[in-house]
TrEMBL record:
Residues 1161-1325 form the TATA-binding protein interacting (TIP20) domain. This is TATA-binding protein interacting (TIP20) domain-containing protein. The keyword Methyltransferase does not apply. Keywords: Repeat, Ubl conjugation pathway. Belongs to the CAND family. It comes from Rotaria magnacalcarata. GO terms for biological process: SCF complex assembly. The keyword Hydrolase does not apply.
Length: 1362
């Protein structure tokens, strides 16, 4: 340590000895800050002086100085060496066990200090931690044993002692707390003390004092979490035996033992549920036996119950359900029945009179107030039955959370009516629990309805195509079948909540509104028949003023009460407005709201002007939805009674827009609301009103904070069907918008492009050349492959400008040339495809009619390929002069093919075809040129590929096969070329050139397929595939008469030994089946079933081809085939049990495709399919073989692809069928995958563990030890020194991924209490290599948005394994 540091420390130590308490306090504070610095290093002498000085301050007479000294101990033990740590711990332990009556304060402060030291030691990587923790535990155990002995002697002499554990001596209570901390932090390292601790804790579990029992239970739980299995079973057996020997009594005092042991088991389950799971059946059975004698089962009305015992038992059942849902599953019906009874358990209050008032839910405010006073008049401080009801509600919620299929069980119909009935619970705490439980049920219903809605969507789609007139109410009933159990309870829900919505207690009103908000989100229009009840009651919460009762007391207290009251009312109003917004959004029949508009709108307008930004923000959302209520469409004539509100809404939003000092959220919502007013009600505003608002919008557009919402609002106004006069707006805003295209703000640029495009399409007459030029000059920089979506938007805008039919806005070639140059560069990009390519083609077509000729544009398109022919030829010539011409020939051929990227050929060809269709007369020259190039041997492969693709794309629109008699033969000749790209292009073209004359083209293709060899057949089948695939996009009636002949030809090639050929055949069969599902799908099924029954003699190739064909019928969009396929798919999935490994593999691929694209096909079959799926995740030794490669032997696993396909399918099921999975079985196979030694399998299971930690953390928590151990093994594994570079890279990626998985597991609640998590972290921090890697991964996740996302609302993948 430097001289300056030594001097500084010495100065602080001197001040710590000062007689001034302020000096001592500040010196200790400064010392603590210095010790927390990384740079400070202490020598031995400084360590001794600091330790001595801090320990001395623990005996200080000033409490603040003592507390500061305790805080200083934490960073101090992280800086000093082991001898000094031992001195600190010995001193603190001695103080904690000081029996002197005068040392009470010192004992308390030393106990706090020891806890601080233990917490700090747990975070250090020092090897001394284990030995010090053992010494501390030894001292603590000795102190407890000594205290117990002294207490026993004192009892015989009838004296009191601070260490009397049985009677709750304060010192011993502190020691028990410290033991709990020690076990939680170092439990695994203290195994030598576990037996002693067991004897001490069990002997004092029946203490007379609850404080002792509570601490003993906590310590016992931590002990059982880390002790060995034999000791765990010994202690658990003791607890269960004691429970069975203690019969429940009516008296609460005699039930103390039962309550203690029930609490102990509950606490153990929270910390060590994975160990307790195998004993759970017996534990639940015993727990239920204590509460089975429910009020309804006992005939005696005078029967008394131990409310506290019932409460503890219900809390225990709640914990068991959450921690061990699989093991408790069989008890769920019984638990639900008991909880329902205890949810109604209120022996001291009669609800009969209250139930009678339920029918009169529309009674006046005064009546409601009287009812509330009657309820408030009831008070019984000794009544603890509310705790029973509270625990019952929480237990029911645990059932709902853990039972994903609750809607399919009888429990749903049992729970829902009782919860609705208990909405009138008199105790507000219990009422809040009931509301929360009911909201959980609503959320489960919503999730299940989403799956059912998806399943029924395809059924309805098929019905529409079967019979356009058959879409009746039956379909709607089917569609809503999952919600029907809830729908029947809606009237009861409304009736129960209507009274609460006028309750005097704002918390109750707020809770009822939250329930309704969740209810309307389950299904659209679910409250449509109850608007007249719900809406007035909701508006009642908005109409109240922030009044408080008269308060007699000090002015400060009265002011505080008013503040609390105002806060409560504000929360209520925010909740009411949020519900109103949800109600208006989810209910489409605006006429139902019309009778309430006069009452609703003044309130909403008033709240939109509220000074509290949250209320104003929510009110503006409601206001914009209200605009659509009074006028749903611009074509609808607004009712006369609503016209006065138009100006009020306008003035309200305009006032908000003019304000300068309000919240950002309010600003944005005010802008959006104002746009709604203009869009829906603009024609009802005077011209002066409209003209006055445009300058404000322009000002907001210039403001950096409000420009984005203003651009969006402006887009809505421009697209309004009212077609308002916006000339003034356009003139002022277009230059501003054009300048935003230069901003480094992607979202702003995209919204600006959309806005400008809408302006040009709808108000082109207001644009002239100067205005267009301001836009055009900004567009070239946006057109590149780095952001294709932005380029697409820019091209669409340019296209719209080219299409303006106005001589004054004609775009010159010079103006468009920079954009054209950029597009010609973009078309060569390998990334250009899909909608971006469509935008390029649309731009070219618009350009030809405006600024450039067809011939010139086509020449520019093909120039990159033709201009490089000479360079390619020169390269080829120089290559042939090389010393090794035969070795260089493939390179020459490859150079010719890669003049531009393969995708660029297709992009140019599609653009050429689209231009040609619009200019057929001018296209003859180029079509003839391309045909000549195909016959020209001097042309490079690049030119021939371009010629082939251009002809093929043009063939989609015009019959080229007949216009050129020898074109088909030319293409067949090219099939013999050495170039793969050339053959592929010829195959593609052969499919399309005759697509407009299938009656002659199909027979030609089928005859060629029949007489060709295998390689030629493969290319011809590709041609046939292009025709069938095109039929799926554009109906070609001529194909129907050839389906039978095509089908026979395809089936003739199902047994082809070439897998590539079979895959093409399968795709053709699948696409063809989509066209004629009723006819062809049964044929596929029958053929597959026959070949499956004759596996010994039948070829497996046919079965694999048929399954692959089925995969191609499963697409993400609803299809006519879906309803038929659902009834047949089970037969095809029987391929999972096929003897042939390839058949099983393609069956898994098809299963995965169905789970991803159409989960409704397989959801109901998962119970049968999952065992077959899991079976394929096993490593099969019989599929592993050794292959000799020269002097080396290489191991080949033929089952690897099968396992990968199985794990991929499992991962897909997490997203689409989570509620159908038994997560414990699922996790077992995930754990097996973590132990497999293949890179791909491990990475897949890593992704699954991360996903599971977010979707079902409670279940993962129970298996943490099994999940973390493989991660630790991977982290500690080594790669052989002679391995190749790729092996080292894969190993590094595996270790990084393992740490990412660990970080995800760490985020689970209570994971830090599990020993394996702490062990892994210790393992990481004990090695510099691992610690550096750990810190690197954390840093990457903080800096990159593509790392983990622990947000449970995130539906995207949360892990980047690259």
């Amino acid at each position: 340590m430097s001289v300056a540091s030594t001097t500084h420390i010495g100065s602080l130590l001197d001040k710590m000895s000062s007689s001034d308490k302020d000096f001592r306090f500040m010196a200790t504070s400064d010392l603590m800050n210095d010790l927390q610095k990384e740079s400070i290093k202490l020598d031995d002498d400084s360590e001794r002086r600091i330790v001595k000085g801090v320990l001395k301050l623990l005996e200080d007479t000033n409490g603040e100085v003592q507390n500061q000294a305790v805080k200083c101990l934490g960073p101090l033990v992280c800086k000093v060496k082991e001898p000094q740590i031992e001195i600190i711990c010995d001193t603190l332990c001695s103080n904690c066990t000081n029996m002197s009556k005068d040392a009470e304060q010192l004992r308390d402060i030393s106990s706090s200090g020891l806890k601080t030291v233990i917490a700090s030691l747990a975070t250090t990587n020092s090897g001394a931690t284990n030995s010090i923790s053992k010494k501390i535990m030894q001292r603590l155990i000795a102190a407890i044993q000594q205290g117990t002995t002294i207490a026993n002697n004192a009892t015989s002499k009838k004296t009191n002692n601070a260490f009397d554990l049985a009677n709750g001596g304060q010192s011993q209570l502190e020691i028990l707390d410290i033991i709990s901390d020690m076990l939680s932090k170092f439990g695994a390292n203290l195994s030598s003390f576990h037996s002693s601790l067991k004897q001490i804790l069990l002997s004092h579990l029946n203490s007379n004092r609850s404080a002792v029992r509570k601490r003993v239970i906590t310590s016992l739980s931590y002990l059982l979490e880390t002790c060995d299995l034999a000791l765990f079973n010994e202690i658990l057996t003791h607890l269960l035996n004691e429970l069975q020997r203690a019969p429940p009594s009516k008296s609460s005092d005699t039930n103390t033992t039962i309550k203690t042991y029930v609490q102990a088991l509950t606490s153990i389950c929270r910390l060590a549920s994975q160990r307790l799971s195998e004993h759970m059946h017996e534990i639940v059975r015993i727990t239920l036996s204590f509460i089975e004698n429910t009020p309804s089962n006992n005939n005696s009305d005078d029967q008394q119950y131990d409310d506290e015992l019932i409460e503890y038992c219900l809390q225990a059942l709640e914990t068991y359900l959450k921690r061990c849902p699989k093991e408790t599953n069989q008890f769920v019906p019984k638990i639900v029945d008991i909880c329902i009874i205890y949810l109604k358990y209120d022996p001291n209050f009669n609800y009969d009179d209250d139930d009678n008032t339920m029918s009169d839910d529309q009674s006046g405010d005064d009546d409601d107030g009287d009812d509330d006073k009657d309820q408030d008049s009831y008070s019984d401080d000794d009544d603890l039955s509310w705790k029973v009801r509270h625990s019952a509600a929480k237990c029911i919620e645990a059932v709902v959370v853990t039972q994903h299929d609750i809607l399919q069980t009888n429990c749903y119909r049992k729970i829902v009516p009782v919860l609705i009935e208990r909405f009138l619970e008199r105790e507000n705490t219990v009422k809040a629990d009931i509301f929360h439980c009911f909201i959980t049920i609503l959320q489960q219903t919503k999730t299940t309805y989403a799956h059912q809605h998806q399943q029924q969507h395809s059924t309805i789609y098929s019905s529409i195509h079967d019979d356009e007139d058959s879409m009746d109410t039956d379909h709607l009933a089917t569609k809503n079948s999952y919600v029907s159990p809830l729908a029947e309870y809606v009237p009861l829900i409304v009736r129960s909540l209507a009274k609460i919505m006028k309750d005097k207690d704002t918390k109750n009103r707020e809770g009822s509104l939250v329930v309704l908000t969740n209810l309307v989100q389950v299904q659209h229009n679910i409250l449509i028949d109850h608007i007249d009840i719900i809406l007035p009651n909701t508006l009642h919460s908005l109409s109240i003023s922030d009044k408080t009762k008269k308060y007699q007391g000090s002015h400060t207290e009265a002011k505080s009460t008013q503040t609390i009251s105002k806060s409560l009312h504000s929360n209520l109003k925010i909740t009411a407005l949020a519900f109103l917004y949800a109600l208006l959004q989810t209910h489409n029949d605006s006429a139902r709201f019309h009778k309430h508009v006069k009452l609703m709108l003044p309130l909403i307008i008033s709240h939109a002007n509220d000074s509290f930004y949250k209320i104003a923000s929510e009110a503006l959302l409601v206001l914009q939805e209200s605009v659509k209520i009074i006028r749903p469409k611009s074509t609808v004539i607004i009712q006369t009674e609503f016209k006065p509100f138009v100006e009020q809404i306008y003035e309200c939003t305009l006032k908000r827009l003019k304000q300068k000092d309000f919240d950002q959220e309010v600003k944005e919502r005010a802008i959006t609301c104002f746009a709604y007013v203009i869009v829906y009600l603009g024609d009802l505003l005077s011209s002066d009103q409209l003209q006055s608002c445009w300058p404000i919008l322009t000002e907001l557009l210039r403001n950096e904070i409000t420009r984005l919402p203003t651009v969006r609002a402006l887009t809505s106004i421009v697209e309004s069907p009212l077609h308002l006069d916006l000339q003034i707006v356009l003139v002022e805003t277009v230059p501003i918008l054009a300048s935003y295209l230069r901003q480094n703000h992607r979202t702003l640029k995209m919204n600006t492009l959309s806005c400008l495009r809408s302006m040009i399409k709808l108000y082109s007459k207001h644009f002239n050349k100067p205005i267009l030029k301001t836009i055009l000059v900004e567009l070239p920089s946006l057109i590149n492959e780095n952001d294709l979506l932005l380029a697409q938007y820019a091209l669409k805008l340019t296209t719209s400008m080219c299409k303006i039919s106005n001589n004054q806005t004609h775009i010159d070639k010079d103006q468009i040339q920079p954009i054209l140059n950029k597009v010609l560069e973009l078309i060569l990009s390998p990334l250009l495809q899909g909608t971006a390519l469509d935008a390029v083609i649309e731009f070219f077509c618009a350009l030809v009619s405006q600024s450039i000729s067809y011939e010139e544009l086509v020449k520019l398109l093909i120039k990159p390929i033709y201009s490089q022919q000479k360079a390619t030829t020169s390269t080829a010539a120089s290559t042939t002069n090389d010393h090794h011409p035969h070795q260089q020939q493939p390179q020459q051929q490859q150079q010719q093919q890669l003049v531009v990227h393969r995708q660029a050929f297709y992009s140019i060809a599609k653009s050429f075809a689209s231009l040609t269709v619009a200019n057929l007369k001018e296209s003859a020259y180029f079509i003839k040129k391309f045909q000549e190039d195909l016959n020209d041997s001097k042309c490079s492969d690049s030119i021939k590929i371009l010629a082939l693709l251009c002809l093929g794309e043009t063939g989609k629109y015009t019959d080229l096969a007949q216009s050129s008699s020898n074109l088909q033969q030319i293409l067949l000749d090219i099939f013999s070329s050495q170039s793969d790209d050339l053959r592929t292009a010829a195959s593609y073209t052969l499919g399309y050139i005759g697509i407009r004359n299938l009656n002659s083209h199909i027979p030609f293709l089928l005859s060629e397929i029949a007489r060709s060899q295998t390689k030629r057949q493969y290319l011809l089948l590709h041609s046939l595939r292009e025709i069938i695939a095109y039929q799926n996009h554009e109906n070609l009636p001529q194909l129907d008469e050839h389906i039978d002949s095509i089908w026979r030809t395809l089936f003739a090639h199902c047994e082809c030994p070439e897998e590539g050929t079979r895959n093409v055949v399968a795709e053709c069969l699948g696409k063809l089946t989509l066209l004629k599902a009723e006819k062809l799908l049964p044929i596929l099924r029958e053929t597959f079933v026959n070949h499956t029954e004759q596996q010994k003699s039948a070829s497996p190739y046919v079965r694999s081809t048929i399954i692959t064909a089925i995969k191609f019928t499963i697409v993400d969009q609803p299809q006519h085939i879906d309803a038929i396929l659902k009834s047949y798919i089970k037969d095809f999935l029987n391929g999972l049990e096929d003897k042939d490994i390839d058949v099983r593999r393609v069956a898994l691929v098809m299963f995965n495709s169905a789970a991803h694209n159409k989960p409704m096909l397989i959801r109901d079959l998962l119970k049968e399919l999952l065992p077959k799926l899991y079976n394929e995740t096993r490593v099969r030794p019989e599929l592993i073989r050794e292959v000799e490669m020269g002097p080396f032997k290489h191991t080949v696993d033929d089952g690897l692809d099968l396992r990968k396909a199985a794990y991929e399918c499992m991962y897909t099921l997490l997203d689409t069928c989570l509620d159908k999975l038994d997560m414990f079985d699922y996790l077992t196979y995930v754990e097996d995958g973590l132990k497999q030694d293949h890179y791909d399998i491990r990475m897949l299971t890593f992704l699954m563990v991360v996903r599971l930690s977010i979707l079902c953390p409670t279940i993962v928590l129970q298996r943490l030890d099994r999940l973390v151990q493989p991660l630790k093994t991977i982290l500690q594994s080594k790669v052989k020194a002679n391995s190749i570079k790729q092996e080292f890279e894969k190993h590094d990626e595996l270790r990084r991924a393992a740490i990412k998985v660990f970080l995800a597991l760490q985020q689970i609640k209570d994971a830090n209490k599990v020993a394996c998590i702490n062990d892994f972290e210790t393992c990481v921090k004990s090695s510099k290599e691992f610690h550096d890697l750990y810190n690197t991964v954390i840093l990457e996740q903080q800096q990159s948005s593509s790392g983990f996302s622990f947000n449970t609302n995130n539906n995207t993948e949360a892990m980047d394994m690259s």
